[in-house]
Amino acid sequence: MGCGTGMVGAALKVRGVAEIIGIDASAGMIEIAKQKHCYDQIIHMYLGKPAVYPPKLRNRFDIITAAAILAEGHLGVEVFDEMIHSLKRGGYAIFTTREMYLDKYNYRHAIEELERRGFWKKVKEAKFQKYQNIEKGTKIGRYETVDVMIYAYKKL
Ligand SMILES: C[S@@+](CC[C@H](N)C(=O)[O-])C[C@H]1O[C@@H](n2cnc3c(N)ncnc32)[C@H](O)[C@@H]1O
Q1: Domain residue limits, the chain
Q2: Do 66 and 12 meet the contact criterion of CB atoms below 8 Å apart?
């Protein structure tokens, strides 16, 4: 989800993932991703509207990845419902977000609420630093070291 220029797709492809489908709202990003030949199919669509999520994408995927789309100006909490819609039972949603966005954009509440309601179960979480080479407390332009969370949830 939010396949962008295909960074995640390329990383999955070299690890031998059999069939990779990308979704993104930006035609420009998709054009760049296509040149990497890492996706078997790329779908140009806006995520974030679970009520009209296409039937052909439901209960279809073993794994969903969403890297750097839970972010400012990108996806809201609605995309978690779309992850649930997309996955087969027993499939995994693997997604990242900056730790500071968890509460700012209500992601934490939405993720935990879906677990409380029995839609999925957390199997792993980890924290890493982005822009980790920048000395703590300093900035280079608008960049500074930020904490990023990565989660893996299994659809029940
Ligand atoms: C930082 S990039 C993600 C990078 C990507 N995961 C990769 O592996 O290259 C964020 C992407 O989210 C996409 N995006 C933002 N809002 C979206 C939406 N509502 N529906 C689909 N894609 C969206 C943007 O077009 C952009 O390509």
Answers
A1: 47-155
A2: no
Domain formed by 47-155, architecture: 3-Layer(aba) Sandwich (3.40)
What pLDDT digit, counting tens, does each position of 11-34 carry? 999 999 999 999 999 999 999 999
pLDDT tens-digit map of 45-54? 999 999 999 9
pTM confidence score: 0.95
Beta strand 120-130 pairing with 21-24: unpaired
Tokens read off for 92? 């995994």
Q: Give nearest CA residue, ligand 1 atom 26.
A: 4
Report the residue among 24, 35, 86, 98 best suited for mutation to probe ligand 1: largest number of ligand atoms under 8 A from its CB: 24
Query: Which string of b and e fits 72-98 if b means at least 16 CB within 10 Å?
Result: eebbebebbbbbbbbbeeebbbbbbbb
Ligand 1 pocket member 22 (CB < 6 A): no
Q: What percent of the chain has pLDDT over 90?
A: 91
Task: Calculate how far, in angstroms, residue 2's C-alpha sits from the geometric centre of ligand 1.
Answer: 3
Q: Could you count the other beta carbons within 10 Å of the beta carbon of residue 53?
A: 18
For the Cβ of 8 lying below 6 angstroms from any atom of ligand 1, the answer is yes
